[in-house]
Design a protein that fits this description.
Layout (H helix, E strand, L loop, with lengths): L7 E2 L11 E2 L7 H14 L21 E3 L17 E12 L9 E2 L6 E5 L6 E5 L4 E7 L25 H8 L10 E12 L12 E4 L4 E5 L6 H14 L1
Parallel strand pairs: 3-11
Antiparallel strand pairs: 1-2, 4-7, 4-8, 4-9, 5-6, 6-7, 10-11
Length: about 240
């Protein structure tokens, strides 16, 4: 009400909640967004190298280098410029839910709860859970995970993974989504999330654009929705130089 957002109160939609509201909010298709980005890059003659390991030495031949490698920023910075982050090994589960939830995105808020989001171009949903999706956490310059997770990390959807919190997801979800007990578990994806240290109370995800020196700029991105503003900040830094 304070910021003038449109919403509609929905009665008896989600059990266990004091208030249920329906809003107009969009999800993006990451594959389609990636395709559009590649079209723009190609149209502007940008040379794109994928599956290629970058090294600090590569920066020498350029006037400016922008490091936007999320959890991997520190590996391209000198030790004096590195920051501490909180690294979280997260599990994102893929399920096929009952028809009632088809194309529905639902977030349970105001607590350490969970959400479901449709997975683009499929009949599946992505499950997120504030408590149970995190398997391991460390604070430092680089992420540290147990060797038993190495084969799972950033390896797409893993069917029947060796480690999963799926049962805990279900137990904590059934209060709000009773039909979730009839879900079909497809598999899980594992990745590293980087956030500011000790930010559990606010769950803040800031986007930090930092001028490291006259050549190097780093972007620590909290949310994809801030990417255009981050790009404008980078542009201003370069223009001032």
């Amino acid at each position: 009400d304070e910021v003038g957002l449109d919403y509609e109160e929905v009665f008896d939609y989600i059990p266990g909640c004091d208030l249920s509201i329906q809003v107009e909010e969009m999800l993006f298709n990451s594959n389609e967004l990636r395709r559009i980005c590649y079209e723009y890059l190609d149209g502007y003659g940008v040379n794109v190298n994928i599956l290629t390991e970058a090294k600090k030495e590569d920066f020498v031949e350029f006037d400016h280098a922008v490091i936007a490698t999320y959890a991997g920023i520190n590996q391209f910075l000198e030790e004096k410029d590195q920051r501490d982050y909180q690294f979280e090994l997260c599990e994102k589960q893929i399920v096929e839910l009952p028809e009632k939830y088809r194309n529905e995105s639902i977030v349970i808020m105001d607590g350490p709860f969970m959400c479901i989001d449709p997975l683009a171009n499929t009949n599946f949903h992505l499950l997120c859970n504030v408590q149970h999706e995190i398997h391991q956490t460390n604070i430092g310059k680089f992420h540290e995970i147990g060797e038993e997770y190495h084969h799972l990390l950033d390896n797409g959807i893993i069917k029947n993974p060796s480690h999963t919190n799926y049962n805990q997801f279900l137990e904590s979800s059934v209060e709000f989504f009773p039909e979730i007990k009839n879900a079909e578990y497809i598999g899980s994806m594992f990745t590293i999330r980087a956030v500011p240290p000790r930010s559990e109370d606010t769950d803040e995800r800031p986007t930090l654009v930092t001028k490291i020196n006259e050549k190097i700029i780093s972007i620590f991105s909290g949310k994809i929705t801030t990417c255009v503003e981050a790009a404008k900040q980078v542009e201003q830094i370069i223009l001032k130089n």
